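Let's do one together. I've listed all components of the complex below, 1071 residues spread over two lines.
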Amino acid sequence: MKIRILKNIFPFAVLLLIAACNLSKEVEIELPDYESQPVVECYLEPGKPFRLLLTRSFGFFDPFGLDSNFFQNVLIQGAVVTISYNSQTDTLYNTFSFDPSPLKLFNYTGQNIVPATVGVEYTLNIVLPDNGGTITGRTPMLPLVPIDSNVVEFLPPADTIARILTYVTDDPNSENYYRRIINYYSLDSVPEQDFIASDRFLTTPVLAFGTGYTLGEGDTVYNTVCHITRDYYNFIESVQLAIFGNINPFAQPSPIKSNVTGTANPLGIFTCLVYDRDTTVIVK
Amino acid sequence: MKHFLLPAVARPLRHLTRLAGSFILLLSPFFLFSQNTATVNGTLRDAQNGETLIGATVEAIGLGKGNVSNEYGFFSFSLPEGQDSVTLRFSYIGYESAFRKIKPVGTIRLNVSLRPESAVIEEVVIKANALEEKMKSTEMSVTTIGTREAKALPALLGEVDLIKILQLKPGITAGSEGTTGIFVRGGGADQNLIVLDEAIVYNPNHLFGFFSTFNSDAVKDLKAYKGGFPAQYGGRLSSVIDVRMKEGNNQKFSGAGGLGLISSRLTLEGPIQRDKSSFIVSGRRTYADIITRAVNKANEDNPDFNQIPDYYFYDLNTKVNFTLSEKDRLFLSGYFGRDVFKFKDASFNFLFDWGNTTGTARWNHVFGPRLFSNTTFTFSDYRYRIRNILQGFSFRLGSNVKDANTKVDFYYQPNNQHTVRFGANVTYHDFIVARLKAGSDDGQVNFESGQNFDGLEYGLYANDEWAVTDRLKLSYGLRVSAWQNNPAFYANLEPRLAANFAVTDRWAVKGSYSRMSQYVHLLASSGLSLPTDIWYPSTRGIKPELSDQIAIGTSYLLNDNLLITWEAWYKWLRNQVDFIDGAELFGNNDLENELTVGRGFAYSPLELEIEKKEGRLTGWIGYTLAWVRRGRFPDINNGNFFPPRFDTRHNLSIVGLWAINKRWQITATWVYTSGYTAWLPSGRFTFQDIPGAPLQPLVPVYGDRNTYRYPAYMRADLGVVWKWWTRRMENDLTLSFYNATDRRNPYFIFIDFESVTTPIGDAPTRIFANQVSLFPILPSLTWNFKF
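Okay, and this is what the predicted structure of the assembly comes out as:
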């Protein structure tokens, strides 16, 4: 299990001092030259169309340009995108689609629905426009790991605040990775918890995720447990370390560990998205 | 020790036995006693408290014969027989010289006590020219810090810290603002052999490295080798930092202490039996937690108040020593220190503590006028422990490294031309690496991980200091080291060589070569010192680290009181261990998969020191121009070389202590370091993520390591010491201004952004860099007393 608690402790003393002394100031710095890279986000969610978001990265201080050309600048259009599985190849056309709530955008969409067949291997191929190179990736469809139960416990003796414990049954015969996200109030809210875990050192068949005593009666909790691949685990971990390494002097940053490769030198993730989600209203 | 080790050690022991035989053959010419000479030997001590004096000079006036006391205060040298009388002068810096007239016949044993100079600074007649001795010695790349000068210098929050003063010496950098990190001549923080009374201190830091574990009241002095390592030292690549505890006053009961901004100290010492035995007990504790607890208590009914966690650290040093006979002395010493960070409320019970324990039992025996031995048993333990208990669930994580070491050292002086040291040691290491246990109290959920290792480390050495002529001195030796961690076995030959040629009485040219090997490695996840950094042994997959260092230099003594030393050096580092990017330290049963091995090098054409040790104005100027690189790690930086965080091109420090009169002293330090390197992102992308997770508008993309260099670091500290005496006590008030010019030095830089909210999440409108500094001007006042 990834232990985040340490990372919260080490900067504590430092941040306390900095806050007390107000010792932060804006400075001008020069960063090394950076060549833009294509960025792939493709989550194959059973029952939903094949969709993919293809964007590009920028030099760190490049302007964002939140104007009418924003999407044109950020999105890579005109690429040829195909996904192959079971001797079948689907083309994802350069058309927009989106999930309304929470809003997620995609600029390449297929006409078929992602089947839920476990074990199927999917292969992604992208040819970028203007000889921009190629991108490839592979990922398997994993089985769903359902949430067994959500248990609400109030803190005695006052019984005014509660926590929720989420139990899942882990397959001890295979190495499994999970991403757990918990949102209070709505799926659009900033998650209370978002972390990755592995079962490598689990000695029992049951895995539990818990919150602190931060809930009150009537609160709604959205509990998501994703069963993820090792590649996706590595990618999310590297994204978190990259973000954390920027703000924490004690943390070692990480380059992004992508599972897409190719002559276009891409970043990103191509993975199946298999998750169970429960909604719980806290009652005594 | 596990029984399976017994047959497993047989093979390496056979090799070592053969090598030991070779050593004895090598040294046999020196065991022949010279005839028609008188031998003078004995021990030099402080007359006021009985402490042995290390590095004090004994000289036969007019004969050019003499010696320097070793680290146990013992000296020995020969004089030609036949003269009616010879006057010996015993001298030591800060002490009045003593004179003894002897008739050089046979063996003369002289135990001499020197009186400290009075606190009044007089026009100094050079009584003990430590600088001259340093110039003449074959030792190079060595520095000594005394607690007397350390206590006078300005210190962060008034906490006197020998390690931070060591950072002001050339060739040594701190790695980061305010911390006790030690990076010596391009070596890593784990490549320093830090010993307290010969026991290894694995983590010499308190409070994430802001203070060191060495309580200046309990320490006699600190000697650091940056290169030219004598053969008795081994086990680390880049430096040896030898800290000696005081022995305790064997003349009268006395005490010392201090009341500072963040901690208080108290030391008690005295004779158990006058002249025969003594004890010393010294303690230090911080008290920020007393204030935070009071604040928490005052706010316990405030529902909006967030409890402040408790934090404190403490140290306890103890030592007793017994003079068993004219020839035998026994020392027992120990250290125990802990940092404690804890937090507890109705649903949360968190504890994080870490610290060292060391113990030393040492027996000095004088076999005869020319042979002295030191037999030592040491014990070291460093551990950290994190525990959290959450209503039915618990989480425990810890690591631990333990050593038990036995060693014997012989000091043999067959004649005035040769000083031979030889000895051996065996250390048993026991490692518990990142042991994790987490789960529910009912056993329904349980995680467990961690690894255990043990290993045996052997060392066998011999070294001869040979005065070839009046002008040429050689020090040559060999250390054989070995490591066994079943089934891995490694052995290394570590030659050591140093030479000193006195061109004139004031000018010496020196050179040295040394190879070092290191069998235990610190796995540090960042460039900073954290208590959770893990010590890991050499295994079949992780080979011992090796270094080779050559150094040349010259020393010039100006006006008997100013020593100018220039050195240039080059260091090669092999089998350097680092983490792969994004490595998982905790909850990992196979850490070796997270490690990668590479090389390194460092060099300096100019390491300059100008020292002044006597007079009203003392101090030093140190400057280093150096380059440090690491590389050839298959999994880091595409195998390319890169500068580590502590690669700083220019390091300049100026340290001055000005004794105005008996009561007042002004001290100042000024430090300039060209910027540390940093690994900053070069690109960014926007990460939409999956439903339930918010869009990340700015994910940094990190390219090559450490391509950015922070702005230069510059700091001036000032101190004023005022002394006064009452009938029973000597007191001083030390007023320090850390960062007296209130300069904002960079501690780290992070990238921040301003944003607007859009339907798909926050969209940055401006990205900018923020520099964070740690310390503004920090005044502090410390009251110190002695009785």
